[in-house]
Design brief:
79% helix; 140 residues; 5 helices; single chain; mainly alpha
Length: 140
C-alpha cells in the first residue's frame, strides 16, 4: 500500500493517471459487460460505462489530482460539457476509424470492442486536457 502523503507530493499528471486508471478500468469493465454479457448496444454500453467512470473521475480529480477549490456549481457544468464533448467526439471518431480502417482487417465480431478500446484512448487524452485547462483551472 502506498502512503497517501507520498501520492499527494507527486505531479498532478501522475495523480490524474492513477485516477484515470481507476475510472477507466471501472468504465471499461462496465462497457464490455453491458455490451457482451447483457447485450446492450455499443452507444448505450459506452454511455453508461463512461457515466460511471466520469462520476468517479470528478470527485477524485477535484479532491486528489488538482486539489481544486472550484465550487461544484461552477465545476460540475464545466465537467459535464467536457466529458460529453470528449465522449461523443472520441467514440464517434473511433467508430469511424474502425469502420473505415481497422474494420477491413479485424474480424467483424471484434469491431465494436476495438472501437471501445480506441475510443477509450481518445477519451482519456482529450478528457485530461479539458479537466486541467477548463474544469479545475483556478484563475489566480
Amino acid at each position: 500500500m502506498i502512503p497517501a502523503n507520498t501520492l499527494n507530493r507527486t505531479h498532478p499528471f501522475f495523480r490524474f493517471a492513477l485516477v484515470g486508471a481507476i475510472n477507466t478500468i471501472a468504465g471499461l469493465f462496465i462497457m464490455l459487460m453491458l455490451l457482451n454479457a447483457v447485450g446492450f448496444s455499443y452507444w448505450l454500453s459506452t454511455f453508461i460505462g463512461n457515466a460511471v467512470g466520469a462520476a468517479i473521475s470528478y470527485f477524485l480529480n477535484r479532491a486528489f489530482t488538482f486539489k481544486s477549490k472550484v465550487r461544484f456549481s461552477k465545476g460540475v457544468p464545466r465537467f459535464l460539457v467536457v466529458i460529453l464533448c470528449c465522449y461523443f467526439l472520441s467514440y464517434w471518431l473511433s467508430a469511424r476509424i474502425v469502420e473505415f480502417g481497422l474494420g477491413t482487417i479485424l474480424p467483424k465480431e471484434w469491431t465494436d470492442e476495438a472501437a471501445v478500446l480506441l475510443g477509450g484512448l481518445f477519451y482519456t487524452i482529450s478528457n485530461y486536457i479539458g479537466q486541467k485547462k477548463f474544469v479545475f483551472r483556478e484563475i489566480k
